[in-house]
Amino acid sequence: MRALTTAALAVAAFALLVGCTGRPEGVTPVTPFDVARYQGTWFEIMRLDHSFERGLGNVTADYGLRNDGSVDVLNRGLERSKCLWKEAEGQAQFQGSPDVASLSVTFFWPFAGGYHVFALDQEGYEWAAISGPTRDYLWILARRPDLPADTRDRIVGTARGLGFPVEDLILVDHSPTDCPPPA
In the prediction, which pLDDT does 76 show? Predict the structure, then answer.
């Protein structure tokens, strides 16, 4: 069942992102970028809604550096009403120099989607804002399951200034649950 859920999540995600590795005009990836500092677990704080994440809470993304310079990706989220964890495993490649935060992520080969970090806590790597290939894709991530309101508002303001539909952002639920942790 878990393999079916994983496959369904990955297929749904890339049905929307087929071959879309570009980035929205005016969105500039962070530079300098240090993927070694970026690796680890990130909590999804806010996102624009898409079918591949609809209804999911407790969403995390885990990034791990591979020997070849690419990045392992594991996205997880909890469908609370069913106590069902959904996940998708993928791999990301830098689109150019590894000190520029612009990657192509593949969950279902050969289809890739753009992943562009356009705002980042450069000092501590504690929060980030990511765009997909269009302004219809926006994620705000943090190292903890919450962000101070002023920090969150500042990131949302940056995204608003770049033309993202921030009024449609969803605040991701990370409250405790009685559901068993993912396997």
Answer: 96
CATH of domain 2-18+29-171: 2.40.128.20
Q: Which of 122, 118, 114, 124 is nearest to 101 (CA)?
A: 118
Q: Which residue has the tokens 């830098």?
A: 94
What six digits make up the tokens of 90? Answer: 């993928």
Any idea where the domains of the chain sit in the sequence?
2-18+29-171
Check residue 14 and report its DSSP letter: H
Distance of CA 97 to CAs 91, 114, 142, 160, Å? 17, 15, 24, 27
pLDDT in tens, 40-52: 999 999 999 998 8
Please name the residues in contact with 125: beta carbons below 8 A apart, sequence gap of 6 or more.
Answer: 34, 37, 38, 143
Which pLDDT does position 112 carry in this prediction?
Answer: 82
State residue 163's pLDDT score: 98
Structure tokens at 181: 């942790």
pTM: 0.87
